[in-house]
Amino acid sequence: MVCVTLLGVVTNVATGALPDGWTPHLWLAWPALAVVVVAVMVVEIRRARESAPVTGVAAAHARRVLLDRVRRYWITSVLDRSLHQEARIQLGVTASADDRRYPWTLRATHRDGFTGVLDQGASVAGLFERLDRAVVILGAPGSGKTTTLLELARELVDAAGRDPDAPIPVVLNLSSWATRRLPLEQWLAAELTERYGIPSRQATAWIEAGAVLPLLDGLDEVVAARRDECAAAIAVFHARQPLTPIAVCCRESEYRELRAGLPVYGTVTIQPLTRPQIERYLDRSGPALAGLRAALAADEGLWEFTGSPLLLAIMGLAYADGPGPTDGPGGRRTRLFARYVETMLRHRPHPAYRPEQAVQYLTVLGHQLRKRQQTIFVLDLVAPTWSPFWAGRSADLLSRALAGVAVGGVVTLLGAALIGWPGLVVGLAAATLTLLALVRDEYDDLELIASRERRPEDRRPLRVNWVTDTADELRDVAGNVGVGWAAVAAALLVGLAFGLTDGLRGWPGLLADFAHWFGMLLATLLALAFTRAMLFDLYLIGPPGGAPRREIPSPALRQRLRFAATGAPLLGVVTGTLGGLPVGLARTGADGLRYGAVVGAFAASYLLVAVALGPLTEQWLVRRRLARDGVVPRPLRPFLDYAVQCLFLRDVGDGYIFVHRELLEFFADRLTKSDAQMLSRP
Fold it and tell me: Where would you find the membrane-spanning parts of this chain (predicted)?
C-alpha cells in the first residue's frame, strides 16, 4: 500500500506543474519514479510467489515430473545398469524360466512375530506391504541392499503412476544429512528441491501431507559421529507422521551399533549367498562363467568372496578370460579388484585415455570423495588442492586481478564517454575497490558448497531475504576497517578529480566535490553489502540439483550467473540513484544522471564479477592447471562417461557415483602415503 501510494505521488510530481523554484530539481522525480516502480515490482513478485496456491494442475504436473526423474535417475540409470545386470549382459548370461532377477534371499521379520522369506513368486513391494510399509533393509557390504531398495522403488513408481493417490517414492542418500543436521522433514524438502528440482513450497506441502514416500539409502554412510543423531531424526519424523511409508538401508553391523534402532514395523535382512546357491547360479550361466568356474577351481580361497553378490559379479567379469596369478601385491580382495579394473580397461579401451591414466584419474577421484565423506561426485568438487604439485593460490589471485581490471576497464570506458577525463579516476577507484574487496572477501568456496560441509550454526531455512541480509551485511562492511577506509579513500579520490575539473572555485566546487564523494561512498557500501548478502544466501542454499552436467560453468556457477544477472540491474539502478542524487542537487540534473550511470555500472559490474564471472575464470584456470599436472583430464566429463561404460562409475542425477563403495575404497587406497598427505593439505 505504501509503495502504491508513493507511486501515485511521484508520478504526479514528475508530470505535474510545480513552482518555479522546484524546476531545477524536477529531474529527481524520474529516478525516484524508477526506484518506486522497481520496488512495487519486487513486492508484487514476492507476494505472488508466497501466496500463490498450489493448484491441482500444477501439483499433478509436479508429481509426473518427480516420478519421471526418480525413474530416470535411479531405475534406468542405476538399477537397470547395476553391476549385476551389466555383468550378465557383458558375459552373455541368459536367464532361465525359473531364474529370479537376483540370486540372494530376503528374510523378513515383523515386530508382531511374523517371519518370512521372499520366494520366487513374491515381490519386494509385496513384502513391503506385509511389513506395514515401514522397514529397514540390512545386509553385509555388497550384499545388494541398494539394489533391493531400487527394486522396491521400481514397483512403487509403477504403482504411483497408476494410482494418483499413492505416495510418490523418492530415493535419497542419507550421507548428506550430517552436513546440516536438519529435522528430517526439512532435509527431505531441501533434497527434493536440490536433487530433483521440485519447488520448495511444493516439496514442503507434499511432505506435510505425507504424499512423499522416502526411500533412504546409506544410513551407514553417515559419518559415525552423527549416525545415532540421524537415526533419531528418522525416528522423530516417523513418530510425527506414522502413516507415511518409509524404507531405510544400512549395513547390518553399523545398524547393530546404533544406540537405538529405528521404530519401523519390519526388518528385511539380505542373506549371504550359500555355496549351493552359487553353484546353481554358475551352472545356470553355462559357458558364460566358465572362466570364473576355472578360477574357483584353481584357487579355493576365492570362494570366500562369492557370498557377496557384488563380488560375485566382479569375479565373473574379472575372470572372464580364465584364472590369473594367485599371488601379487595385497590380499586376495585387492588382487580381485585390480584384475577387474585391468580386465575392463582391456576389453573397453579408449584412444584418449591409456589404462594407467584412467587408473590415476579414478584414484584421485576416489581419494577426494573419501576425504570428504561423499558418495556422489559433482563437477563443482574439483579444486586446486587436488594437485600434489600445485602450491599457493595462483588461479585464485589471477582471477581476482582480472576481475578488478575488468570492472575498472568497463567503468573507465563508460566514465570517459559520459563525464570526460574524471571518468578515468572513477575507473581507477572502481578497480582498486574491486581488488581490495575481493582480496578480503572470498568468492565463496565452490568446493565447500558442492560437498555440503555446513557448520551447525549456519543452519536456517532456505528462503532468502536480500533486504534483511543486505542490511546485516551493510553493518559488517561499515565496521570492516580495511574495506571501509578503502571506500572512503576511493570516494575522496573521485571527489578530488571533479574538484580539479571545477578548478577548486570556492564553495560551489567544494560542494560538488562532497556530492561526488558522498554519492560514490553510498553506492560502494551498498554494492559491497548486497554482493556479500547474495554470496551468503547462495552458500546456504547450496548447489542446484538435476542440472545438466556441463563442464564449465558447473551447476553451482550457472546458478550464480542467474542470481547475478537478476540482481545486477536492480543494484545498478539503486546505487546509480544514490550516487547521482547528491551530484544532481549540488550541480545539475544532467550531471547527476551521467554520474549516476557510471556509479551504477560500477556496482552492477562488481556484483557480476564477484558472484559469478570471477569464480568462472578461476574454475577455468583450475581445470587447465590440473590437466597440465596430469591429475584429471580436461574436459573431465567425457572421461567420467567412459568410466561409466567400463562399469566403474554410474551417473545419477547431476553427478556420478562408484558402482559400489568397495570399489571407491580400492581406488582411494591406491594413493601412496606421501601423495595422500599432499592431497589432504588445506
Answer: 421-439, 477-498, 518-540, 561-583, 595-616
pTM of the full structure: 0.63
379 assigned to some structural domain: no
Q: Is residue 298 part of a domain?
A: no
In this structure, the answer to whether residues 189 and 206 fall within a common structural domain is: yes
Measured CA to CA in angstroms, residue 105 lies from 126, 252, 284, 306, 308 at distances of 15, 15, 17, 14, 12
**Structural domain boundaries, residue 230:** 56-271
Nearest of 2, 13, 11 to residue 40 by alpha carbon:
2
Phi, psi (5° rounding) for residue 212? -110, 135
- β strands within 15-118, DSSP E: 105-110, 115-117
Task: Note whether residue 523 is domain-resident.
Answer: yes
Q: Which residues of the chain, if any, have pLDDT below 50?
A: 50-54, 95-100, 391-392, 448-470, 473-474, 477, 479, 481-482, 503-508, 546-547, 673-674, 676-682
* 450 and 544 within one domain: yes
pLDDT digits (tens, 9 = 90+) for 106-149: 788 887 777 777 655 568 888 888 888 999 999 888 788 888 89
Q: Please tell me the predicted confidence (pLDDT) of residue 459.
A: 36
Tell me whether residue 153 is in a domain. Answer: yes
In the DSSP assignment, the letter for residue 348 is: S
Residues 158, 24, single domain; the answer is no
As a whole number of angstroms, the distance between CA 277 and CA 315 comes to 16
pLDDT value of residue 680: 45
Q: What is the pLDDT of residue 442?
A: 52
Lookup result for grid cell 552436513: 179
Assess contact for 108 and 119: CB atoms under 8 A: no
Cβ count within 10 A of residue 602:
31
Question: How many independent structural domains does the chain possess?
Answer: 3
Q: Are residues 267 and 405 in the same domain?
A: no
